[in-house]
Inverse folding.
């Protein structure tokens, strides 16, 4: 198969997801379900070549003993140096998957999980030249959108200061997680309804997380938010691989302003324009590696409600681990980056942060996540935390 330029750009980055407790079949059944999957990305081997081959051994399936703390399956994964395009680990009632980002985003990990569990997985409806179709559908029907995109980008991506020097030696990828209980999330929703009616909960999360992080570390003023561009395609047309754009925003420290900026970007078609510019830059080889910087560059991604389509019977025979868990994680693109992925599971908000050791400290990131998970209303009810050093936003990848 000939991969899209967006898939080649993401090749080599690892994406991981942990879920449970769920009833899991034996390894033979798991392998058979993956082998019989009709998804075009399962069984593909991403390489540096212009064409990617299929290999029945591209999916590795193994079984390990369930640890006392299931989350350690995810947090210890970067040290395992797994390189298979798709790696599946069964640990009792817990399922860990890891895949090459060239095959798809976190959404692809959800597909692998659904396949392993034997749940119905609709095959993606293939579309020729998806980016061209999305651009024509977005901008040809309303040419004024192009002007709005340009204006929005100018407001959201100010001219930065040069990259600072002096980054400490960077270590391996580290992962921490926190869970915002359903009861705390209900309190946050009530706070939103009183003080920010009509504003999305994600906008509150952006402000709350940035304030919690800024209490413990210097922050880059620009936040990256991935937008799934499949919404700009007609009907159920959907590329099987990567089709999300990382949009950079210089958000105001106010949930209403964040909400307005996100809506303005979506309605203008800016995700499609960003994808187009990224592809053009990649084809002309003008995307440099992102240099490290001292202030943390934050990427905030929200997966949404899990499971996606069908109600799931979360199982669990261990009384210590009955609460369902779905943690999704993607390696940061560069040292100094802090990637935070959130999911909604049974009313709780589950947060996973990944970063390079040496660039940031585990304690600082864990404390910030815990603060937002347990005290979001206190964070949002107080004044803004002062912002710190400015660093240049990295090129979109």
């Amino acid at each position: 198969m000939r991969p899209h330029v967006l898939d080649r750009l993401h090749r080599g980055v690892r994406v991981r997801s942990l879920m449970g407790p769920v009833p899991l079949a034996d390894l033979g059944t798991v392998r058979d379900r993956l082998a019989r999957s009709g998804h075009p990305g399962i069984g593909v081997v991403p390489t540096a070549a212009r064409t990617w081959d299929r290999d029945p051994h591209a999916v590795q399936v193994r079984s390990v003993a369930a640890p006392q703390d299931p989350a350690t399956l995810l947090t210890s994964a970067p040290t395992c140096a797994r390189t298979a395009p798709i790696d599946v680990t069964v640990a009792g009632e817990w399922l860990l998957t890891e895949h090459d980002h060239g095959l798809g985003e976190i959404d692809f990990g959800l597909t692998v999980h659904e396949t392993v569990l034997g749940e119905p997985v609709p095959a993606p409806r293939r579309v020729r030249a998806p980016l061209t179709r999305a651009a024509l559908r977005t901008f040809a029907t309303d040419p004024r959108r192009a002007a709005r995109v340009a204006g929005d980008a100018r407001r959201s991506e100010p001219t930065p200061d040069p990259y600072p020097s002096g980054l400490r030696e960077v270590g391996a990828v580290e992962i921490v997680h926190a869970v915002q209980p359903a009861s705390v999330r209900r309190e946050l929703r009530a706070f939103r309804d009183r003080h920010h009616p009509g504003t999305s909960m994600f906008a509150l999360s952006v402000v709350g997380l940035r304030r919690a992080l800024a209490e413990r570390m210097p922050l880059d003023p620009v936040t990256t938010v991935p937008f799934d561009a499949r919404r700009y395609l007609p009907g159920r047309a959907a590329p099987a691989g990567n089709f999300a754009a990382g949009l950079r925003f210089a958000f105001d420290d106010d949930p209403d302003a964040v909400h307005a900026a996100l809506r303005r970007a979506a309605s203008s078609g800016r995700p499609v324009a960003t994808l187009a510019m990224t592809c053009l830059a990649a084809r002309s080889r003008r995307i440099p590696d992102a240099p490290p910087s001292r202030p943390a560059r934050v990427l905030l991604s929200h997966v949404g409600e899990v499971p996606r389509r069908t109600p799931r019977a979360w199982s669990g025979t261990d009384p210590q681990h009955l609460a369902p868990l779905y943690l999704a994680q993607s390696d940061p693109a560069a040292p100094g980056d802090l990637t935070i992925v959130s999911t909604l599971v049974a009313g709780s908000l589950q947060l996973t942060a990944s970063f390079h050791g040496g660039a940031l400290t585990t304690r600082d990131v864990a404390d910030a996540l815990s603060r937002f998970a347990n005290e979001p209303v206190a964070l949002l009810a107080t004044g803004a935390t002062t912002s710190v050093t400015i660093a240049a936003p990295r090129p979109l990848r």
In short: The first strand starts at residue 14 and ends at 20. The chain has twelve helices and 13 strands. Residues 158-168, 384-397 have pLDDT under 50 and may be disordered.
